[in-house]
Amino acid sequence: KQEVTQIPAALSVPEGENLVLNCSFTDSAIYNLQWFRQDPGKGLTSLLLIQSSQREQTSGRLNASLDKSSGRSTLYIAASQPGDSATYLCAVRGAGSYQLTFGKGTKLSVIP
Amino acid sequence: ETGVTQTPRHLVMGMTNKKSLKCEQHLGHNAMYWYKQSAKKPLELMFVYNFKEQTENNSVPSRFSPECPNSSHLFLHLHTLQPEDSALYLCASSQAGTGGNEQFFGPGTRLTVL
Lengths: 112, 114
What we know:
The complex is a heterodimer.
Chain A: E1 4-7, E2 10-14, E3 19-25, E4 30-38, E5 44-51, E6 56-59, E7 62-67, E8 72-77, E9 86-94, E10 100-102, E11 106-111
Chain B: E1 4-7, E2 10-13, E3 18-25, E4 31-37, E5 44-50, E6 53-57, E7 64-70, E8 73-79, E9 87-94, E10 104-105, E11 109-113
Parallel strand pairs in B: 2-11
Antiparallel strand pairs in B: 1-3, 3-8, 4-5, 4-9, 5-6, 7-8, 9-10, 9-11
C-alpha cells in the first residue's frame, strides 16, 4: 500500500527566502506525482504535475523535482511571498490506477 | 462557470436526513472523483468514475451513494450519516487516457453531521 510522507508538517519563513518542501513515497511504481496548494477551508489548486519519466517541472517561482528510484520529490519555492502561505500537498498516482495517494501536507507561513 | 464547481458549499444535516452533494465540471473531462478530507488525516479517495462508469470504490460505507449521470455531473447521495462523517468533501475531474491525467479540484462542500 502506497504511503506518502511530507516533511516538515509546518514551516515558517521570512518573506524573500527560498525554501524546499519534501515529499517521500514508499512504492516507486508510480505513474505521476502532483503538487497542490490548499488555502484554509478551500479546495485544491494544482501547481505542478511530474510524469514518472520526468525529473523536474517548473512554473514561475516553483520547481518540482522527482527521483522515482529513491521515492522522493521536492518542491522548491523561490523568493517566497506572504501570498504563498497555504498548505502544500503532494500526491502520487500509482501505475495502473486513477487513485491519488496524498500526504498530510506542509503548512507554510511566509512572514512579511 | 469555469473549472469544477460544487454545491452546496456548506451543509449541516442530522443523522436521519437525506441530502445530496453536486459536482459539475466545465473542463470537458471524462473522469470524476469524490474525495473526503477529515481533520488531521490525508485526503482519501472515495469513488472514481471514468466515462460515467464507476471504476473504483475505496471501501466506502453504503450510506454514501454516488451517481454519475453524464461525464460532466457527479452526485454524492447521503443518508443516515454519522457525526464522524463530518468533513470537507472534494470533487475532482481529469482527462483520463492522456499522459497527464492531471486532476482539478472543486472548492469542496463542508459537511457537518449533528
